[in-house]
Design goal:
mainly alpha; two-stranded antiparallel sheet; 9 helices
């Protein structure tokens, strides 16, 4: 965390994705998505027959108000306190969390540790897996469709479905266990969430395709093992 002084108060600001929980980021994403784009605002104001000069001023005011909300969100201060800050203090705050607007570059991983427990990610090979793993792959595919529609809230459940405690068998786990882990993983740092999400997106089609190939291979082996009749 980076400590900055705002309105004579020490404020801890995250410096990277490892210092932001999923829950915190989800709240931030909802704040951002609720804000209209400049194009949307301009179109709306033109429909109100504003002059270009007034329109420009209004859009600038909207941007200032939005930046104020962002400053409040990350600092924990209210709008009145932010209003008492210097321009330099607010600019320093906004710049400090600018990394959330940059593209995250995921790293490949096969396990992660959270609250002293190691969780492992599934491996692409499906031959030694069971049908439950295929069912989970279908669940992941369905949830990925939700992700494509911007539903970030599904991410912790994605992690809960496929990641296992170290030594735990793969395959279907009880719904209440998934529910408990989904709740737990909402406190995961976003770097881990992004890394696991990237892995699962890439693995999804491999899991399903590998399972189908496995079924065909086992069926062929079964036929070949049968005695031939004249």
């Amino acid at each position: 965390m980076k400590t900055i002084i705002i309105n004579e108060k020490e404020i801890n600001i995250p410096e990277g994705w490892t210092e932001i929980t999923f829950e915190k980021f989800l709240s931030f994403s909802k704040l951002v998505r609720a804000q209209k784009t400049e194009e949307e605002l301009s179109k709306e104001y033109r429909e109100q027959e504003m002059s270009e000069e007034v329109l420009s001023l209004q859009v600038s005011l909207d941007n200032i108000q939005f930046n104020t909300k962002i400053a409040c969100f990350w600092s924990g201060l209210d709008e009145e306190e932010i209003a008492m800050c210097s321009l330099e203090e607010v600019e320093d705050l906004i710049k400090s969390i600018n990394f959330v607007n940059e593209q995250y570059m995921p790293i490949e991983l096969d396990k992660f540790k959270f609250r002293d427990v190691t969780y492992t990610l599934p491996k692409p090979g499906m031959r030694e897996q069971n049908f439950g793993t295929y069912i989970e792959a279908e669940q992941i595919e369905m949830n990925n469709k939700n992700l494509e529609n911007g539903n970030l809230d599904i991410l912790p459940r994605q992690v809960a479905i496929l990641c296992r405690k170290e030594g735990e068998e793969m395959g279907i786990i009880k719904d209440h266990v998934v529910d408990e882990r989904e709740k737990l993983f909402r406190e995961l740092d976003m770097a881990t969430v992004w890394d696991v999400a990237f892995f699962l997106l890439k693995l999804e089609s491999q899991l399903m395709n590998s399972f189908l190939i496995s079924l065909k291979t086992m069926e062929m082996e079964k036929l070949e093992s049968q005695p031939k009749t004249l």
